[in-house]
Structure formats: C-alpha cells, structure tokens
Amino acid sequence: MSIKSLSLSILTTKKVVVCMDRHLRAVGIKFVLVSIVILSLFGIFYHVTFNNLLFMCLVTTGVSYGIGDLLIYPRLGNLWSTVIDSITYFAVVWTLSFFIIGVSMPLTLAALAATYFLTIAEPLFHTYMKERVYRIEDKPAVEQMPLGHLQMEMSEEIDDPKLRGKNEKNDLN
Questions:
Q1: What is the pTM of this model?
Q2: Domain residue spans of the chain
C-alpha cells in the first residue's frame, strides 16, 4: 500500500478509497466554510482580533473534520455525522469564544447561530466527501439479474380440472 491511498471495507457492502491530496482539498473547503461563518458572526458583532478569529477557525475546522468527517462519517453516514458535527461545532465555538472574548450569555447565542449555519452546510459537504474524497461505491447485497434474461414458468397443475374440483371442495370444508 502506498502512503497516498488506502482502501477500507465498511460493513462489507461499501468500498472506500481514500486519497490524502483529496483530504487536503476537503480540509481547505471546510476551513473556508467555517471561516466565513465565524468571521461574519464574531468579527462583526464582537470586534475580535483577526488572529483570535483565525485561531478559532483553525481549531474548529480541525476538531470537526477529525471527529465528524474522518471517524464518524465513513462508519455511520451523513445523519449521525451531521449530528456529531453540530454538537462539536457548538462545544468548540462556545469554549473558544468564552476563553477569547469572555462574556458568556451573548456568546451562547452567537455559538448557537454559528452552529446553525455550519450544520446547514454539513450535508452538502458530506456529499462532496462521499463523491470526491472517499469515493464510496454502494454495492447491492444480492446480485441482480438483468431483465433480458428472465423467462416465465407455468405449471400444468393450475389448469387441471380434476385438481380444480378437489381444491374447491377442500376450500368449502
């Protein structure tokens, strides 16, 4: 196996191919997404310095990508990964903003707003992860036959008048 790619089997029905350069691109996209939301909310309303906001963006992106997108998403899918990401967003943003800014109640509302906007974007980001980063191939559990190879089978017992009479008598009893 090479360092750049890794193949995993998940629940024996999906094959996941992981490439490291695609992860770097995905982290960059997530960082831009997180930065837009955090810089908009905290930069405008709380007048926090750019260095502190950049630190918040880096930590939030790293923690949410590591937990939600690398650990949870490949194993449990989009729904649970989005739920875990939203909890992670709130915990990290609220904790960092509490230590950096200091006021608790208005920061809770800002952290909830940031969590809301980031959670809305998560399913779209997970679609990108599925199609471009992990390349998850859904394989059916049972192989399906093509429709052109089917034939009709009919038995003679259904049309036998002797059996039809016996079946009607048995049904009446």
A1: 0.68
A2: 5-138
